[in-house]
Amino acid sequence: MNLSPTTSPAAGTARKPLLRDLDDLHRRLVEGVSDYAIYMLDPEGHVSSWNLGAQRFKGYRADEIIGRHFSTFYTEEDRAAQRPALALRTSMLEGRFEDRAWRVRKDGTRFRAHVIIDPIRDDDGTLLGFAKITRDISDSYAQEMALRASEQRFRLLVSGVTDYAIYMLDLDGHITSWNAGAERFKGYKEPEVLGRHFSMFYTEDDRRDGRPALALHRARTEGRFEGMGWRLRKDGTPFWAHVFIDLIHDEGGTPIGFAKITRDVTERRAAELRLRELTSSNQELEQFIHIASHDMREPLRKVLAFSDLLLQEEGQQLTEAARGYLGSITAATRRMQALLASLLDLTRVTSQGRSFEPCALGEALREVCSDLQMMIGEKGATVHAGALPTVEADGAQMRQLFQNLIENAIKYAREGVPPVIEIAEQPDDDPERITLVCQDNGIGFEPQYAERIFGVFQRLHARDRYGGAGIGLSICRKICVRHGGSIRAEGRPGEGATFIVRLPRRHRADSL
Amino acid sequence: MTHAATGLLLAEDDPDDRFLIVRALHRVRPQLRVTAVADGVELLAHLRSCALEQLPQLLLLDLNMPRMDGREVLAHLRADPRLSGIPVVVLSTSVEPEDRARVQAAHAADFLSKPDEFSAMVILLRSLLSDKLGAETELPAC
What we know:
The complex is a heterodimer.
Chain A: H1 4-7, H2 17-32, E1 37-41, H3 52-58, H4 62-65, H5 76-80, H6 83-94, E2 97-104, E3 110-121, E4 127-136, H7 138-160, E5 164-169, H8 180-186, H9 190-193, H10 204-208, H11 211-222, E6 224-232, E7 238-249, E8 255-264, H12 266-314, H13 320-351, E9 357-360, H14 361-371, H15 373-379, E10 382-385, E11 390-393, H16 395-411, E12 420-426, E13 433-439, H17 472-482, E14 486-491, E15 497-504
Helix pairs in contact in A: 12-13, 13-17, 14-16, 16-17
Chain B: E1 7-11, H1 15-28, E2 33-37, H2 40-49, E3 58-62, H3 70-79, E4 88-92, H4 97-107, E5 110-113, H5 118-133
Parallel strand pairs in B: 1-2, 1-3, 3-4, 4-5
Helix pairs in contact in B: 1-5, 2-3
């Protein structure tokens, strides 16, 4: 912009009327511009004209600022560094001064300014002053800084990520960047891979099958490629990779390369395979227990039946001792039957489990108490139930859980002390889970047995004192685990036992 | 039809059980004519070879048998107008409640679990026979 003919204060005297009109037009134009501060400085730097934009950005009216030195707009630091004088000298010597810097408004606040200072000379080259154009670029500056900061953060993030290999490819598949995760998974340092083709990480078979090119083709045509496969580390060992390749465009939409994200999921894959094997062998085992305990009941029934037949039909010919032996045979056989029945009960937790539906636990507990009314009454027991939540569960198994816990508490009551059982909900840190606590005033147990009591057929006391097969708590645990929950016990001898049950409130559709 | 013609047909593949059941039946009604066969095929063959007046008054049927199990036997019986009227009692060791429900729903047959003890078997069969064949005046002491 050349303002010299119109704005030079010394140039107005000997002008033709037409030119003066034009001057006037220009002056009005400049004065009216509000998006730019456009004003004049005299050769020493004093403000000699002012426009609307200048007033808007800097806060001064014309009458407040004309005649004052333009260093007023500079920060104290810049003034101390002689920047105003430097700006004028640069403008004079180089024909223009341009800068992006902080400037100060009348109210003392700062704004980011884009500044141009042009020297204005007459036809002889004598300096008449300076034209100064300033724009407030605070908004775009803030955006730019934010962008720069986020780019910086992103770069730091990418370069620091070690769980993912994140690197860039050019359109032909040559590696153009590398991060810490890539180095960790693949074993190559950045200089070893830059410029090389990414197919170097593929197995020979995959390269022969053209998989690298296929992946790029898919990314190029569909915008993204996702896949799993074996990749090779520098030392030749394979790892199972989960790979994303995204096509990257410039601002104009032209493809410029690919972003490649690779994750080493070897361990996850191995864990999934192990889990699948375990699940299937677990199922086989359960099936075996089920069939075995079913089939073993048959011969036991015969032992009982023939023992009884012997006693019934030939009992008179037997001695007292022989009849006693028969009694022992029968008792042992009955115990064996009870063990097998318990095993069947245990396998039924999974084999006969029903789907999870909303189950009001308070209701389930009330039903159990009513079923156990006789036993509770006989033992003089009291069951206190707090308000219990509703969870998605197998209702029959929730009832079995409560029943086994209550039966356990009644069975292990202290002699002469009526059992008191409290079942209540307790706050859980996880909003997706609930905690139930079942506390009794029974004989308790040594803390080191807190796990053992959940074992199949484990008992801490002699059978003749406390009957039962020793499977009730195992079933409790199996029910909790089947629901994706847990159960543990706390206790001390003579101080009662506390069972803590945690269950999820809901189940995903695929968790069954 | 004379009283002597009253008979019971038992299909049971396990020889021990066959022995125990026949023995218990004998204890309950010594004069009851009991025929025992080892599976469903034999049972149907026997029934089809019987003259009408020789048909048994009651069938005792084990559920799990080789060749033809109790369920198939029931289906055949229900499909045969000559045999469909004979009352059937299924004797089983199955403890699965759904087995019982299935048998009762599908074939309108009684379902009894084989008891563990001989004396319990005697008691069970006594009440079963008096229910299905009517009371008998002379019951031998158990």
